[in-house]
Request: fold
Amino acid sequence: MHNKIYYFLILPILFISLIAQADDNIELKMIFDQDQEIRENTQKGGKPPSVKSDRDRRIKVFEIIANNELKTANDYIHALVIMQHTTLMFDANETLISMSSENHLLGFQFAKKAHQLGHKLGSHFLTWTYNYFVQGVGCDQDKFGFDLIDGYIVARNKTLQSKVRADSCGWFDPIPTYKDLGLIKI
Reply:
């Protein structure tokens, strides 16, 4: 009798979890593939992507986000990669900065979600997107960035206090956020 109650309780949970495992967003995957193809061709000497084509892809991703169509870890990774491709310019100090560094913040949050959903490269993308943000706002990655070493996110400058990092680059330090996830090795 006790086993029957257990099955009645567990079967609906299993059914709901199977329904919740959505397939990757096909439209987003096509946009991602197009984005990556253009970049691969550029590396082979082809024409670089236009500002307009990158912007159009990001706008389409914003529509997908607004329609709540990011479901899987892969969806979040595809979206964050596209969002990282923002227009760059030189500031008054001849430092290359992003015209839309907020896209890097969004990418970081997507990396966090992908990691939480179990993406095997989630911690890699957490580090990568944070470093893109640091660079995009004109901060020195060697001073303010992080590396992924043996599965842990490690500050490149271990003597730098979190407050200095946040004050200098205008964003929080990921160490407090990811300490509880076991990704930070201090």
Observations:
- Residues 1-21 have pLDDT under 50 and may be disordered.
- DSSP finds nine helices and four strands in the chain.
